[in-house]
Structures are given as structure tokens and as C-alpha cells.
Amino acid sequence: MTWAFGKAILLGEHAVVYGYPALAGAIDCRLRAHFIAEPGDGALRLRVPAWNLDVKRADEHVVGTALDAIVRAVGAALNIREPHLSESLSGRIDIDTELPAAAGLGSSAALSVALSRVLSGALAPARLPLDNDQIAAIANCGERRFHDNPSGVDVALATRGGLGVFVRGQGLEPLSAPPLALAVGLSGQERRTADLVGRVAQARSQAPTRTDAQLAILGAAARSGRAALERGDLAELGRLMARAHATLAELGLSTSVLDRLVAEAERAGALGAKLTGAGGGGAVIALARDKDHAQAICDTWHRSGHPGFACSLGARP
Ligand code: PMV
User: Fold this and answer.
1) Closest CA to 100 of 277, 313, 289
2) pLDDT per residue over 118-170, tens digit each?
3) How far apart are CA 248 and CA 289, in angstroms?
4) Whole-prediction pTM
5) Section 296-307 average pLDDT
6) How far apart are CA 315 and CA 35, in angstroms?
7) Could you give the CA distance from residue 213 to residue 206 in angstroms, rounded to a whole number?
8) Which residue in 99, 100, 191, 296 could disulfide with 281, CB within 3.0 to 4.6 Å?
9) Which ranges constitute the DSSP H helices of the chain?
């Protein structure tokens, strides 16, 4: 049995793709993977009942191709080649998770990390486990099947947990701030990260000056957010989140449902609220004073027909 975290980006999504920092943390909402060896046709099977998913390795389904990419990367890291690789992996992987799919909470990264861990354990049970850097490198091979151009922030947090500042190509710098109380509201609108990242790329080619200025504002907010977090100024962190939502909306990444969830959270006294992840649907996050306040914000969303959950940002293994 292995696990990985979901994540939420406090500040800096999309800008992080272009080299700006992102302030983000793991949420205490995990995904667990379990390998069960069983004789059969040798085709490794993956089941995620919570997402209605049942695929085989290399099936023509994004999850099947991601699984295949991860198997190959684990094989390369452990120096195990075909046909031994496939023979050793005759069986199935069951995934147990409360993490919603396609909601901006890093579900594909959590899946890729948990698969990388469970497969390396199944292939080399007697060896020392691969270290976090090796696991993250393997998981990114899967994550690239889900998102054409991932920054790596999701995989870094799914692997290590905690709270930190991520810069593409440099990795995650952990921060020692205490975990934050967060309410996560679900719009119910599924979307593909790659499409939204593509939308920003298109905006950059059509209106480079304006789009680059908006990305720079998001990156600067992540830097200021870090400083606010480090001095314990959650009111300022919340204000930065509210402004970041407005900038993300200007970039065309919000929806009317996301805007409504943000407004409802603000009326319920959130210190700040914004869409998180790629946008275009998915989730919003609201910074709360404490766990009870986070739950009260979720109750407000429930009353208007949208599910949500209270969680802690900065969950550590
Ligand atoms: O929506 P998610 O969980 O896939 O997060 C995407 C975050 C982006 O910054 C939009 C893309 C990336 O690769 O960092």
C-alpha cells in the first residue's frame, strides 16, 4: 500500500508554467494504491472506483497510457526489462481516494506518484525504496500524458507533502509555516488542465504584452504571499488570493459558478477566496480562520447546491 497527497495552489497557478514561483501546499486528502498480484493474461489492470475507472496498461485511454509510461520509467530506474517487467506485474492496482478528479486538486499527479511508489515496491520488494526525487521523476513521465506541459508543482507536492514555493526547474522550497485551514468548494465542472494551459498560451500569442503582465502579477502575488505567510499575516494572504482570482478571471480562466463560489465564501467571512489550479471549472479554495470556520464556509456552499470539504493545507507525511 502506498499513498500520495492532493494539492492546492494558493497563488501562482499558470504563471508557474512560465517560470514564476507558485505558493502551494499538500491537502490532507490522500490517494492510496494497492498492488494485488494475480495470474492472468499479464496485462496490468488499474481500478479507481471513486472515478468510475477501470483500465489496462496501454489501453487507448489517457490513464492507460500514463500507467504504461510509469511502468516503463520504473523499469528503467530499477534496470528491469521486458518480458520480466510485464511478468512481474501480472495483477491489478486498486486505488482508494476521496480526491475528486479533474478538479484542480492534483488528482493526476497524486495518481502518478502513488503508482510510481506501488510499482517500484512490487518490482523490487527487497530493495530500498526509491527516493523522493526518483519517484517524482518517474511520476512526471505519467503526468506528461495527462498534461502536455506540466510545471511539476503537483508532482512535487504529491510526493513530499508540506507547504512551499515551487519554481519550475528548481523544485520545491519547503516553508515551515503551520498548516492553513482551507475550505474547498467543488463547481462540478470537469475540465482538462492542458486545454486551460493552452488557452493562456494562445492569449500570450495574441496579446503578449497584456498576458505577460498578468502572469507577472500572479507571480509577484506568490512572492508577496510567501512573505505574508512567513510573518503570519493571513489577512494579507487572503487579500492577495482575492486579487489573484480577479487576474485569473481576466485571463478567461474563471466561470460564473467559480465566481459565485468565491463571492459566497467572501460573504461567509473567508479571508480570501479564488479558483485553484487550472480553472475553467474544478475547485475554489477559501482561506478560513480555523477548521470550524472552514466548515461553515462549506455549509454555505452546500446550501447553494455545491459540495465542499474543509481541509488542512500543508499536510505532511
Ligand atoms: O488543475 P491542476 O491540478 O492540473 O493544476 C494545474 C496548475 C497549472 O499551473 C495551471 C499548470 C501547471 O502545470 O502548473
Assistant:
1) 277
2) 999 999 888 888 999 999 999 999 999 998 778 899 999 999 999 999 999 99
3) 24
4) 0.92
5) 97
6) 25
7) 13
8) 191
9) 62-78, 84-88, 107-123, 132-146, 153-160, 193-206, 208-230, 234-250, 256-267, 291-303
33-89 per-position pLDDT tens digit? 999 998 876 789 999 999 999 999 989 999 999 999 999 999 999 999 998 899 889
Bridge partners, residue 243, by sequence:
none
- Is pLDDT at 314 greater than 90 in this prediction? yes
Whether 219 lines ligand 1, by a CB cut-off of 6 Å, is: no
Look at strands 2-11 and 180-186 and give their pairing: unpaired
The single residue listed with the C-alpha cell 500500500 is 1
Cβ of residue 279 lying under 6 Å from some atom of ligand 1: no
Report whether 155 contacts 252 (CB < 8 A).
Answer: no
Distance of CA 182 to the CA centre of its chain: 15
* Active-site residue, selected from the candidate residues 154, 290, 292, 299: 154
| Residue 154 annotated as catalytic | yes
